[in-house]
Write a structure and sequence with these properties.
This protein is an alpha+beta fold. The protein is built from eleven helices and five strands; from the N terminus they run αααααααααβββαββα. Strands 2-1-3-5-4 form a five-stranded antiparallel beta sheet, with helices on one face. Helix 5 packs across helix 11. It is globular and about 50 Å long.
Length: 211
Amino acid sequence: MSRYTGPVCKRCRREGQKLFLKGAKCYTEKCPVERRQYPPGQHGPASVRRRKQSAYSVQLREKQKVKRIYGLHEKQFRNLFEYAASRPGVTGQNLVIALETRLDNVVFRLGFAASRRQARQLVRHRHVQVDGSLVDIPSYRVSAGQEIALREGSRELDIVAASLGARTRPPLMEWLALDEKSRVGRIVRDPERGEIPLPAQEQLIVELYSK
């Protein structure tokens, strides 16, 4: 599967806001989106003066923003939306909760990695266990009561120590519990939409996919 390897700050500039794709560095470095408040490319400055965006364009940009925050490709995101739509309840909220309960995101939320990209790498390289079994699938869906831990030989990795010790490390989510010393976390309960700090209007995504 292809993956984006270019400057992640370009993605923030395209969406017009910080997406915190570089983790702790986004808190300590001056972001290009603050210096150049227009999309990347030779036509970027001119696009600021363009006419008002259509409803479709607004919905599309909201979807692209959420995809980039969580580091997903279109097919992955569409499959996740279809799963959310098949569940009882509000589809938009189901979608956000499904994104949050991906294994790579939970590893990031526990503080084992400074960014979701780094968390995905930890999972892919078989450093993470779920209920005592190695899992190397970033999209693995975790649920309440499950235990997420770093395997014994990975607990002292430099990137893990740096992430847990960072001054800019976000506070632990209320639906998670963490034993930092033993590098073990647990899903206490399913998250609620109001507890997820995602700056997005998921209803716009639902409207886009419902066309």
